[in-house]
Task: inverse folding
């Protein structure tokens, strides 16, 4: 047996893969992350509102999810219920973040690991989508419009019409990437030389957030974080590893289910679910935007000063958990668990994490591609 | 002084160097549906952003045309990739991103095609081949504690600190993109567990800072084009920020400024005052202390900016703002600043970090806040 070290780049940072192989077939892979920033340390002893400004900076790609998870955690701790309008606005911006992330990941990160593709295709979308988010949130990336108790913005009818118009235009445009039937030329081209059954995961799925149309299938109290061999931390649910992300949360969709039943939880199914989720989110957003009651309040003031709370959202890459302990308006304890930790825990050969399982028994040539199909975010891990 | 002839000479020299782009910029623009007229309009707008006279517009266009002669190396350190994300969503005019695609980007972790070992090889090649000629853009702060081991890059587990120093040695110009590389950023917030610093603290060369979390794409592209145009760094303020972008306070051109002067403030989110778009100073807006062009340029193709969405400015382009501007939802003027000395107000601390004009505004803000007729 031979062990080679491989550096995975272009994942908003780097990861190290130590591949144990025999005749170029991967027997086992160790996953290591060697960056650390210490976000939870800065939050201690600051007023809890500061968390809403600091936390988006965990990640420039999915900072919005961190912002909303923070707001939700504080709301849970201080017993605040937000209005329907605030909830819909948060769903729209978070949904859009997921959409732009998926498109960018597909063309900028995943495609180049196999063949080259014009990345302007992705940029066209991300630019327009950021514009819609900016209409609601002020700017993208990094904004602070969501606060514990609701949102700061107050949209006019004209802005809502604009948003709706942008949404339906982009939805139509997306049909050229993947249509509502699930047909995608670019995806088929990507798999022209790769078997669609490559890279099977654990076949165990976990959804913890309940934003957008996603339905939770677990309880956060069974989550356990554990030290790993590198600067990453392993995450388990009821002492087992689970896969989180678009495939996990969309298994009840008919079209995704059909692909899953044909190819099981392979790389192809994972990518398909991610691309198809974009369609589902577009349709959902177009539906909920009509439910906005423009005269409804956008903010409810928190009255309590202390408490413990948990905020969970389904972020682009899967379930994201923020835990907070507030004492007299100040943060006493903060803990963040990101989706990449679930999927890329570094465990043993006997009890592998989803990504380790997907890599095992596959050709070493494909390791970069299989690894990236989980849509890894190294900066989130290095919080 | 600005001399068009000198710039033209420089461009003529650059033009003689071999370009890497397979097509000329005009061809690329045409393919993407832009006309020559659009291009000149963009050049005019950029000339204005850079604070150049209108006569410079055609020269800016020429500089953009030869921008593939000047290699750019983009280094990621401890950061969140938000600055690159901002760049990928460049402001209007949208030609910016085409130009950036055209710029000879020798190495950029997120958008280049190569990965892993091959990327590392490209990197070393670029440093050797373009020695003394390349522009180095750095995104992210540099961890320095314990020899910098909180950030290691590449197959040889080189520390970020070492890689930065090595790359900076032969760079023609160094641009710190974003607050992290300019001043350390979020990693450097108290208690700064990794000893993160702005890159100018570890280099003995001039660094131009383009802070912001994230900075607007226009400021990033503008600075790079300026370097191409003049072969030197633009005029800067005392924190090495280009004056064309960081010359004015957010407050100076804020759309809510009229309400500030009239003493009309938002006291609570979701209130009637908030709906009327009153001034956010009392909800912690740091616009009066922050030098940047957000209120003029906005974000995401001029669509909006945080103050328009009802949240105050957090002061993200100022040094150490993560500590000096906190708490972010409370005004600096009436907040006791606990860490320096118990009875010093944040305004006094503010004095040390601002220019004299900045202090005048801060005082004005404090007085207006007291005189508020609505109280």
Result:
């Amino acid at each position: 047996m031979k062990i080679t070290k491989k550096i995975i780049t272009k994942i908003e940072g780097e990861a190290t893969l130590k591949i144990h192989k025999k005749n170029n077939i991967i027997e086992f892979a160790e996953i290591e992350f060697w960056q650390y920033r210490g976000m939870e340390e800065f939050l201690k002893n600051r007023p809890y509102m500061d968390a809403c400004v600091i936390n988006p900076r965990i990640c420039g790609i999915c900072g919005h999810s961190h912002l909303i998870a923070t707001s939700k955690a504080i709301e849970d701790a201080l017993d605040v219920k937000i209005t329907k309008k605030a909830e819909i606005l948060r769903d729209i911006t978070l949904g859009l973040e997921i959409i732009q992330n998926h498109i960018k990941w597909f063309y900028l990160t995943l495609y180049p690991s196999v063949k080259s593709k014009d990345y302007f295709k992705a940029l066209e979308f991300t630019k327009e989508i950021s514009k819609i988010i900016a209409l609601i949130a002020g700017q993208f990336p990094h904004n602070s419009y969501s606060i514990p108790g609701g949102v700061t913005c107050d949209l006019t009818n004209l802005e809502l019409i604009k948003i709706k118009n942008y949404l339906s235009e982009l939805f139509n445009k997306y049909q050229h990437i993947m249509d509502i039937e699930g047909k995608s030329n670019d995806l088929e081209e990507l798999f022209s030389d790769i078997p669609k059954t490559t890279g099977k995961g654990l076949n165990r799925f976990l959804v913890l957030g309940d934003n957008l149309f996603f339905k939770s299938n677990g309880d956060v109290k069974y989550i356990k974080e554990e030290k790993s061999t590198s600067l990453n931390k392993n995450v388990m649910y009821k002492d087992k590893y689970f896969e989180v992300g678009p495939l996990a949360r969309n298994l009840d969709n008919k079209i995704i289910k059909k692909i899953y039943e044909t190819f099981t939880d392979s790389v192809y199914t994972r990518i398909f679910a991610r691309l198809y989720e974009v369609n589902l989110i577009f349709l959902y957003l177009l539906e909920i935007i009509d439910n906005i009651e423009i005269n409804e309040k956008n903010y409810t003031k928190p009255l309590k000063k202390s408490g413990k709370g948990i905020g969970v959202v389904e972020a682009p890459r899967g379930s994201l958990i923020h835990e907070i302990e507030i004492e007299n308006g100040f943060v006493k304890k903060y803990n963040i668990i990101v989706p990449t930790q679930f999927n890329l825990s570094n465990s043993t050969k006997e009890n592998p994490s989803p990504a380790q399982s997907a890599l095992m028994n596959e050709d070493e040539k494909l390791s970069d591609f299989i690894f990236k199909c989980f849509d890894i975010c190294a900066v989130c891990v290095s919080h | 002084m600005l001399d068009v002839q000198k710039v033209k000479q420089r461009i003529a020299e650059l033009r003689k160097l071999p370009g890497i782009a397979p097509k000329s910029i005009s061809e690329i623009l045409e393919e993407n549906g832009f006309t020559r007229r659009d291009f000149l309009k963009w050049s005019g707008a950029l000339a204005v952003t850079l604070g150049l006279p209108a006569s410079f517009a055609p020269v800016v266009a020429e500089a953009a045309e030869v921008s593939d002669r000047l290699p750019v190396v983009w280094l990621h350190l401890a950061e969140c990739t938000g600055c690159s994300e901002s760049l990928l969503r460049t402001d209007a005019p949208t030609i910016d991103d085409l130009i950036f695609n055209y710029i000879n980007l020798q190495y950029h972790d997120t958008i280049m095609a190569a990965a892993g070992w091959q990327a590392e090889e490209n990197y070393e090649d670029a440093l050797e081949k373009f020695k003394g000629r390349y522009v180095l853009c750095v995104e992210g702060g540099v961890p320095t504690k314990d020899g910098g081991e909180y950030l290691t890059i590449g197959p040889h587990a080189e520390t970020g600190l070492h890689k930065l120093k090595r790359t900076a040695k032969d760079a023609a110009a160094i641009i710190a993109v974003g607050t992290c590389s300019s001043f350390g950023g979020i990693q450097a917030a108290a208690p700064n567990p990794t000893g993160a610093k702005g890159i100018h603290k570890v280099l003995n060369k001039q660094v131009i800072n383009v802070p912001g979390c994230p900075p607007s794409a226009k400021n990033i592209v503008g600075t790079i084009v300026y370097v191409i145009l003049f072969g030197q760094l633009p005029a800067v303020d005392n924190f090495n920020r280009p004056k064309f972008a960081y010359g004015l306070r957010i407050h100076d051109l804020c759309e809510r400024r009229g309400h500030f002067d009239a003493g009309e403030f938002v006291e609570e989110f979701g209130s009637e005052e908030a709906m009327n778009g009153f001034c956010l100073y009392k909800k912690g807006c740091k616009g009066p202390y922050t030098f940047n062009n957000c209120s003029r340029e906005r974000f995401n193709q001029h669509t909006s900016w945080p103050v328009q969405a009802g949240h105050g400015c957090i002061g993200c382009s100022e040094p150490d703002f993560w500590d000096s501007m906190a708490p972010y939802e409370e005004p600096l003027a009436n907040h006791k600043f606990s860490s320096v000395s118990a009875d010093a107000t944040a305004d006094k601390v503010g004095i040390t970090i601002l220019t004299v004009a900045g202090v005048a505004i801060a005082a004005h803000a404090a007085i207006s806040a007291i005189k508020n007729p609505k109280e």
Summary: The first strand of chain A starts at residue 2 and ends at 8. Residues 84-110 of chain A form the longest helix (27 residues).
